[in-house]
Amino acid sequence: MALSFAGAQRAYVERVAAALRAAGVRCFYDVDEQVALWGEHLAEVLPAIYAERARAVVLFISAEYAARQWTRLERRSALVRAAREQSEYVLPARFDDTQLPGILSDLVTVDLRSRSPEEFADLVVDKLSKLGLGSAVPPKRARSVAVVRGLPPRNRLHTGREAVLERVGGALETGPVAVVAVQGMGGVGKTQIALEYAHRGVASAKYGFVGWIRSESQLTLVEDLAGLAPALGVPVTADLDETVAAVRAALGAQDAWLMVFDNAPDAVALRRWLPDGPGHVLITSRDRGWRRVAEPIEVEPFTRGESIAYLQAATGNSATGTTVDALADELGDLPLALAQAAAYMDRHRLSIGGYFALYRWQAEAGRWLAEPLEDYPAGVATTWLIQHTALAAADPAALQLLRLCAFLDPDEIDLGLLLSRREQLAGDLTSALADAAGDPASIEAVIGALTKTGLVTRLDDTRLRLHRLIALVTRHQLAADRAEAAWASHAARLIHVLFPDQPWDHPHWHTVARLAAHATAAAAHAARTATAAGQAPPDEAGAVLSLLGAYLGERADYSTASAVLSRAFALTEATHGPEHPEVARTLGNLALVQKALGEHEAARASLERVLAIFEAVDGSDHPRVARTLNNLGNVQRELGDLDAALTNLQRALAIEENAYGPDHPEVARTLGNIGNVQRDLGQLDAALTNLQRALAIEENAYGPDHPEVARTLGNIGNVQRDLGQLDAALTNLQSALTIQETVYGHDHPDVARALANLGCVQQARGDLDAAHSSFEQALSIFVSALGAGHPDASWVQRLFDGLADP
After folding, report:
1. Who contacts 203 (Cβ-Cβ below 8 Å, separation ≥6)?
2. Which of 111, 87, 93 is nearest to 5 (CA)?
3. How many C-beta neighbours within 10 Å does residue 69 have?
4. Extended beta strands in 291-419, E state
């Protein structure tokens, strides 16, 4: 049977498909058929599946389903078959109340909102049996269906490696948490070995949970670990570190799991992220320094027999003899080079002998291309060069997509997002790609042309993976043509355009998480190539890192934010000079992180420089000046310079009221900061008045459950405590804590501040046990997030110690 659904419901349908397979039902589910669909034209193959080959079709109805082009094609094809046969061919099920054209209102549908995927699969099997299409016995699962997250599709051409796979399996049985590192040179097939091992573990029911983690950078590693949370029943919070800690704890409480950390840079970078518990960890890495962390297993190239067997299987050519042997020898028995060669032969219907002759003709150019690249096999460069020549002639849009992807993070490239701004692709570099991006069928043809080369792996409908060696030689070829800097700048510009204007706002976090690794990669390539060409870095390199750093700061990942913003500041200054507004904007973002880290003197120096730049560029009454005065006043308050802080904040308020009027959120923010300083000065009535005015503005602008509302409620509670209004203070501080825990999770520094302030009120009310608990939680969060030496941690420690004193 066939499953027709929108990508928004993939997680549900994936479990339905797995349950159906476990019950012995053959079903068409796109992820399982990626190899079969490789290079096919979907406009031709989908009608054949949904109108001819399937014996029944489940339509998973939703608003997203109604809006997608490909699902409309699937639905129309299925309805044509149902009308022709007057049969119960179409089985509709719904996630919401969306009405679909062609689906009669009296047609009975199954409501999925109250059914698990496994329960729905039982209904499907029962229905099939009633239609005479399956067993009359509802499914009795002999084993539970494995939960799989992030695992790429299985390679149907996997060949050999039995000895290595046996060693991996044996090493993983050595302890309660066995950690094995598969290591070796690039292109030797480390990832494919881990992939095959994981798929075998799922198929044999050895593992009930499998997670695949992109590990080259901390950004992708943390994102993928946090992405496991829903499957493990872990709440997803704004604080990534908290979510990851909860994921690791959940794994520690389970058994029969496998975590694959793919392409880890080294043991130092990965050690802190490894989970505990009765499960298995498998690592792939080019680094060889794993012995203190894992059982290392060195991976060598194919044996000659494996190389020949792979070429025969991949090309459908059973030829043997000196030509096959000689080609394998030329390719160094390297799986990546063999895969490219086989893909070319298959696509161009070329014999092994014909390809070998072409290879020998290009071999010298390949050796020249690979020579400057460390640990880069000439065989991979030569096979890449052959594919490159063919793409340039026949599929320029596919070649342009390959070149663009070479300047991004290679692990997970989301084309749905990357190509969503077609106008940004216009121009000489990606003109053919821009033309294709306007039409789903055309872009599908581009993806098909590229995947057929073996240069990329298709992960699902919209996501690709590019091997690092392929990306490297693609960039090097562009450098040889003196075009690398232009492509790098183009990639950075595109990622910058795709970034939300306010990435720190909660609704944008999902989009920023998908772009984060690409932002760091594109900015690094743009800066590197510009420097090599003797040019200043392009504007976008520093700008996109500044946005990324601001997002990381809001998510309380302060150490990473500091590193990203420091790099952004250096790039922006190199691009524009020291007195440019973009330099000031980036330095202002860095100052906020410095303040959060307790580096108050550094934050003050940064903000004083920012203020000088903005005043010189904009004049003394510009809103950017007011925002800087606001931030500077907050730092001065932390440093105890209350008079200076109040002066700067009152000046900021005057500018903002003149620019925005009296009821703007920026005015509210400044009023709140003034109220905090007035409280420190003992001006409690004035502080309460300003804070209550700020609260009214924020609730009107944001609603009652916004983080800004929570901060102001907490500050009002602090003033009420000082005024002796303990019941009101308790109510407001509890409300603030509830909002902040909902938005940020339980381990965010803002939650810790709310807990500490709540503890002070509880102590004043004589509820010492509650105060003890609040202080203890706050201290734990601060120490974990910021370190024991941070001023906030020291403040709570003093509160805690004071509670214990008689």
Report:
1. none
2. 93
3. 12
4. 295-298, 413-414
> What is the length of the chain?
806
Best CA proximity match to 328, nearest among 159, 124, 508: 159
Q: What are phi and psi of 109, to 5 degrees?
A: -120, 160
Tell me the two tokens of residue 483.
């075009």
| Amino acid at residue number 587 | L
d(Cα 649, Cα 629) in Å, to the nearest integer?
6
212 and 262 Cβ atoms separated by less than 8 Å: yes
CA distance 537 to 576: 9
Mean predicted confidence (pLDDT) in 499-524: 89
Query: Over the stretch 323-371, which tens digit does the pLDDT of each residue have?
Result: 888 888 877 777 877 887 888 788 788 888 888 887 777 666 666 555 5
d(CA 200, CA 197) in angstroms, rounded, equals 5
Round to whole Å and give the CA distance between 477 and 374. Answer: 15
Strand order in the sheet with 147-149: 147-149, 209-214, 257-262, 280-285, 178-183, 295-298
Q: Which two tokens stand for residue 452?
A: 């057929």
Share of the chain above pLDDT 70, in %: 89
Task: Please give the Cα distance from 478 to 485 (Å, whole number).
Answer: 8
CA atoms within 13 A on the CB side of 756: 23
DSSP string, 483-499: -HHHHHHHHHHHHHHHS
Band of residue 137 on the pLDDT scale cut at 50, 70, 90: very low
The predicted model scores a pTM of 0.64
DSSP result, 635-681:
HHHHTT-HHHHHHHHHHHHHHHHHHH-TT-HHHHHHHHHHHHHHHHT
pLDDT in tens, 70-116: 777 787 777 767 766 666 778 888 888 787 765 555 567 888 877 77
Helix spans in 349-377 (H): 352-370
Give how far Cα 308 sits from Cα of 94, 325, 326, 327, 564, Å. Answer: 50, 7, 10, 9, 47
Query: Cβ distance 286 to 183 under 8 Å?
Result: yes
Tell me the β-bridge partners of 149.
211
Whether 416 contacts 268, CB under 8 Å: no
C-alpha distances out from residue 540 to 150, 537, 544, Å: 30, 8, 6
Round to whole Å and give the CA distance between 388 and 344: 11
- For the chain, the distance separating the N- and C-terminal CA atoms, rounded to the nearest angstrom, is 74
Both tokens of 543, joined, read 């700008």
Contact (CB, 8 A) for 257 and 231? no
How many Cβ atoms from other residues are within 10 Å of residue 88's Cβ? 14
Q: Are 341 and 359 in contact (CB under 8 A)?
A: yes
